[in-house]
Amino acid sequence: MTQTKFTGLGIALVTPFKEDDSIDYDALGNLLDYQLQGSIDYLVVLGTTAETPTLTEEEKKSVLQFVLNKVKGRVPIVLGCGGNNTKAIVDKLKKDDFSGIDAILSVVPFYNKPSQEGIYQHYKAIAESSPVPVILYNVPGRTGVNMLPDTTIRLAREFKNIIAIKEACGNMDQINDIIKRKPKDFMVISGDDGITYPLITMGAQGVISVIGNAFPKEFGRMVRLSLQGDYESARVIHQKFTDLFDLLFVDGNPAGAKCMLSLMGYIENKLRLPLVPTRMVTYEKIREVLNSLNVKC
């Protein structure tokens, strides 16, 4: 079943850069090895955490092909494919090669601030054009507009290839409303590491994770224990990471994740403008927490 491909821990993969601003493919390869050895369930490529708006079209194609060649089908691949120009997305879905792609993750249109009907029509056009399953992505803190549960449920019921939502609205009542009313085979995926544990206890089926870049094995264990109903064991792991959840995003995403991965020796602490690395005070706090978790920095 398609659903089982995206149950558990998905990784919102970062894009490593060198000091000269070029993509660090050696670091990306090492990071992918680390993820695969950590028994992740799937990868999300070219999403928000990948700093995709700062990549050229050629770089996007190159990163995707590099990941596909490296992973070789060992885990499913979800491709970020969204924006605020519906026609451009539809054209891309019709003309690009989606070989090796198991689903797309498509964000609610940003900046334009469409109505709920506009959001529905946007996703209707995508669903009717996509050669692969579609995962909705609601993140009003970034897009400026919140896709309400009625719109999510309407899309889930009317389009069989819309299989899930990555929900990052931050409103537990809203997410619970979706979980209660959704079709049986429609998945709710956490878009926020810090509330993944409680969301799974409510019926969510996993997470697309930022912290998983640095802790795939440990965070994945928490997710799987939660899904198995071993909430006490899962809670212990969840609470180990609570100090990191806020630090990950206090200076923006993926600044916190890249800081962690840099301290762990996987990548350079380099982002592309307009994003910049964490402040030094955040850097030192992350180092302290990593040391408390017995991670060598």
Protein model, in words:
There is one protein chain. This protein has one domain: Alpha-Beta Barrel (TIM Barrel). Helix content is 47%, strand content 12%. It has 14 helices and 8 strands. Strands 7-6-5-4-3-2-1-8 form an 8-stranded parallel sheet. It starts with a helix and ends in a 5-residue tail after the last helix. Helix 5 (116-129) packs parallel to helix 7, helix 7 (149-158) runs parallel beside helix 8 (172-181) and helix 13 crosses helix 14.
Briefly characterize the structure.
By secondary structure, this protein is of the alpha/beta class.
Structural class, judged by helices and strands? alpha/beta
Strand order of the largest sheet: 7-6-5-4-3-2-1-8
Q: What proportion of the residues is helical, as a percent range?
A: 40-55%
> So what's the overall shape?
globular
* Spans of at least 5 consecutive residues with low confidence: none
Question: Beta-strand percentage?
Answer: 5-15%
Largest sheet report: 8 strands, parallel
Structural descriptors:
14 helices; about 300 residues; TIM Barrel; about 10% strand; alpha/beta; eight-stranded parallel β-sheet; globular
